[in-house]
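testing teh design pipeline on a random one, pls ignore if ur not involved
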């Protein structure tokens, strides 16, 4: 059963805030998005490399719901696919509601295992002032609510294109809620 669709795919060979949309990206098992700055077995995010460059890369692929872009545009922000740093923009899948370990089948072959939530940094304010407050809020207990997408690792490689179906396979219970990675 198809749970949603890929609406855009993006990558950047350098550590830029946004990524360029492409007609197709190739996911490489255990590594990430071919040609993307975050490709690799070990962590590539600059602040995490500074802490410990041998950490496993749990952030090989960044996915964001197109529904978030819709909400941001309705709130007066100008946001397009890839501009928030995501590799895969989706529609029709509640990414933020998935448990850790969910498998996302993207297109015919690629599979990404969800590892956690993206923790947006202050760079988002440099992109558009006020945007950080839109993607990180607080719940009734004062705990952070992160809405800037999910991160994952590639368990099966393959090409991913806009229009590709997304199959969602949740892990066996008990489920662990997503936390920042």
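output:
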């Amino acid at each position: 059963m198809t749970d949603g669709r890929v609406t855009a795919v993006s990558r950047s060979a350098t550590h830029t805030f946004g990524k360029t949309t492409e007609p197709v990206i190739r996911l490489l098992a255990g590594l990430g998005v071919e040609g993307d700055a975050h490709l690799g077995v070990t962590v590539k995010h600059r602040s995490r490399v500074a802490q410990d460059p041998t950490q496993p890369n749990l952030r090989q692929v960044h996915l964001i719901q197109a529904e978030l872009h819709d909400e941001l545009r309705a709130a007066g922000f100008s946001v397009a696919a890839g501009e928030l740093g995501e590799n895969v923009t989706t529609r029709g899948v509640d990414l933020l509601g998935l448990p850790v370990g969910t498998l996302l089948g993207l297109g015919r072959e690629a599979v990404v295992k969800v590892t956690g939530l993206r923790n947006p940094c202050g760079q988002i304010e440099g992109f558009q002032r006020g945007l950080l407050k839109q993607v990180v809020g607080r719940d009734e207990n004062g705990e952070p609510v992160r809405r800037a997408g999910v991160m994952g690792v590639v368990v099966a490689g393959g090409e991913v294109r806009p229009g590709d179906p997304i199959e969602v396979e949740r892990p066996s219970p008990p489920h662990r809620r997503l936390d920042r990675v």
